[in-house]
Amino acid sequence: MSTPASPARKPLHPGAARRPWLLGVTLAVAVALAAGGVILSGRFGQCRSAWDQDYYHLRVVRQFAAELWTPDLSEYRSATTPGYHLALAAASRAIGDGERAMRLAGLLFSAGLVCTLGWALARRTSCLVALALAAPCLCSTYVFGSAAWVTPDNAGWWGVLGVVLTAWARKVDARAAVVGGIVLAALVLCRQIHLWTAGVLVLGAWIRAEKPGGIPELEREPPGPRASRAMIALACAIPAVLIVAGFARLWGGLVTPMFQAGGLDPVLNQTTPRNQGGNPAAPALVFALAGVYGVFFSGFAWGALRRAMRGEWRARLSVGLSMGVAFLACALPRTGYDYDAGRRGALWNVAARFPAPGGRSVLVLALGVLGGAVLGLFFASLSRRQRWLWLWTWVLFMLTQAASLTAFQRYIEPFVLMLLALGASRITPAPMGPVAPSDAPARDGSANRAPWAAAGPSLLALGLAAVTVLSLGRDN
Which of 390, 430, 448, 466 is the most exposed, having the fewest neighbouring CB atoms within 10 Å of its CB? Predict the structure, then answer.
């Protein structure tokens, strides 16, 4: 007797993939094969990621492996919290602490990152569009470098993605807050600087819930339930705060003692880089990278651009305010190339070839204002809940980067690419359902996405892949 086939599960959002996990697994396998090939080849030992691995992170893993199960966490050769290194040290008990073994073990964190990103995107859009959105992040030289060598960057970005996805859900109830708190605690055990994501989690609990399609679930939800959810989320973030505070007390600062005062590095026989202090130019770099890469994602905010060009005041106000903030962020601090001030590498090197009157780079200013326009278009395209979470996530990240001493592109680019992809996936292709005019993503009835929207990130991915290939074997 035959049993009837169970109906296929409907996607959470109209037009989304029916099996989003399939894209996530596919991307994870692709990254594992590409990075695994580099690892097993034994080549490309001169790039920046290889340098960081050989002189810092792999040494920490081996130190902890020798000291298990009572490692000395008060001093080691990394400015980050030790969670990533401890995980690999524990794995070394089973697979050994050889370089290739450790690199292959570390690759699991990167596979988890891209798998989660692909799954999250495919839950809100088709597999092909999700693939196009995820591809730039996968092809970034900084993401690939952390996949192929032992560095904690992708472990940190995986945690950032997990907390952001939890906070950006349609509703952050008590269960989601607990999950977010656990992910946040694991995140700050690997990268203490990402404690800022706690603010996103709390705001996600405070903002009222919504139904699929950006329709508010409760038009006039009283502040009591919202405050209760926010307090629960705040309580769930306390363990992460205590973890960071505990390490700060142990080290006598926010980084390990080796990186606080610029002492002598016995391995390199030179002064260690100081990792405490601020850099007001960091938000300018975030805006500039949003301009460089955001143009390729702008097709997903096509409806907002059309509304702004037609004179719709809400869209124009969103874009205008964002451009104004970006202009100030790029014009007030010094943004010219300066090695000692932490403005070096990648885009800073390109900016050095352009005029910088008064120490303000013309290139960074132009790209930053463009980035402000792109972020403003995305804000105008998202639903009410999503737009405020989108804005708050960028603000907290920029403020955190400004509190860091160095404004390096490798600490910013993966975030920009992930946020642009997540934001684009949350812009509905066309108006959905009976949405109130004040909340409708496309109030004039036009489609939000341009027909060629997915071609933009696809082209960007090809360019970033070429940069990654060329950067292998170079000291970048």
Answer: 466
Interatomic CA distance for residues 322 and 328, integer angstroms? 10
Q: What gap in Å lies between CA 200 and CA 49, rounded to an integer? A: 30
Selected residue with higher pLDDT from 60 and 311? 60
Q: pLDDT tens-digit profile of 436-456?
A: 344 444 443 346 788 899 999
Give the pTM: 0.93
> How do residues 300-321 score in pLDDT, each as one tens digit?
999 999 888 888 899 999 999 9
pLDDT at 286: 98
Per-residue pLDDT, 377: 96
Q: What are phi and psi of 259, to 5 degrees?
A: -105, 15
CB burial class (10 A; 0-12, 13-18, 19+) of residue 30?
A: middle
pLDDT of the residue at 448: 77
* Residue 38 CA, distance from chain mean position: 24
